[in-house]
Amino acid sequence: DIQMTQSPSSLSASVGDRVTITCRASQSISSYLNWYQQKPGKAPKLLIYAASSLQSGVPSRFSGSGSGTDFTLTISSLQPEDFATYYCQQSYSTPQAFGPGTKVDIK
Amino acid sequence: QVTLKESGPVLVKPTETLTLTCTVSGFSLSNARMGVSWIRQPPGKALEWLAHIFSNDEKSYSTSLKSRLTISKDTSKSQVVLTMTNMDPVDTATYYCARIRAGLWWFDPWGQGTLVTVSS
Questions:
Q1: In Å, how far are A57, A81, B115 from B94, measured between CA atoms?
Q2: Which helix or strand (DSSP H or E) is residue B48 part of?
Q3: Which residue in the set A49, A94, A101 is minimally distant from B60, CB to CB?
Q4: pLDDT given for residue A60 in this prediction
Q5: pLDDT interval class at A106 (50, 70, 90)
């Protein structure tokens, strides 16, 4: 099974900051990598699919990049509604594993 | 509008079998390449994929939970059912269902989730 890791596990940032979250797969997954945002008490929401494609309705301040084993999610200018936990998920093979999450909170 | 909604017991006892139902609307479980996955999240912890089923009845299960899980669908009722046997307190979690499409392989959208507590 493919294992996913994320770093950092948590970060504190201010509104307007540029934030970068890293996700790493235990083997190459090409571009089969998706990102989700989860707010407390809510279901996850798809942000980015296929490593770099922005889901419809998601603000353009979110972007994804990477291929192979290393991926990044970038928030270009953090907004108050972006404080949440972010998960990566590999869709290269079953089981489709999630990363452990990165919690973004207010500095 | 595509929606999914989970239903099932709030509380189950250890060793019992959990049965959860996901009712979908806005798409048909008979549509080519359409599928539903189950994912769970223990309180304060990360997401864990459990199983999926597709319109052609292809099924797949979590490696670690495979012996305890069964997924099925009733296309006429627009429902996907997950059963998990021999429940344990560590299985306490919010259980989500989500749409998935073969070849696209991301989960969107998700149901609201249902919290299942395992306790005697």
A1: 26, 23, 4
A2: strand B48-54
A3: A94
A4: 97
A5: confident
Tell me if B20 sits within 8 A of B34, measured CB to CB: no
d(CA B21, CA A29): 32
DSSP per residue, A39-107 = -TTS--EEEEETTTEEPTT--TTEEEEEETTEEEEEESS--GGG-SEEEEEE-SSSS-PBP--EEEEE-
Residues, chain B: 120
- Phi and psi at residue B91, to the nearest 5°: -85, 0
pLDDT of amino acid B102: 86
pLDDT tens-digit map of A63-105? 999 999 999 999 999 999 999 999 999 999 999 999 999 999 9
Interface of A with B in 19-78 (CB under 8 A): 32, 34, 36, 43-46, 49-50, 55
Tally of CB atoms within 10 A around B117: 14
Structure confidence at residue A89 (pLDDT): 98
Name chain B contacts of A32, Cβ cutoff 8 Å. 105
Question: How much is the CA Rg of chain A, to the nearest whole Å?
Answer: 13
Mean pLDDT score of chain A, rounded to an integer? 97
pLDDT, mean over chain B? 96
Q: Which residue has the tokens 């500095």?
A: A107
pLDDT score of B104 more than 90: no
Structure tokens at B106: 């991301």
CB contact, 8 Å: B32 with chain A? no
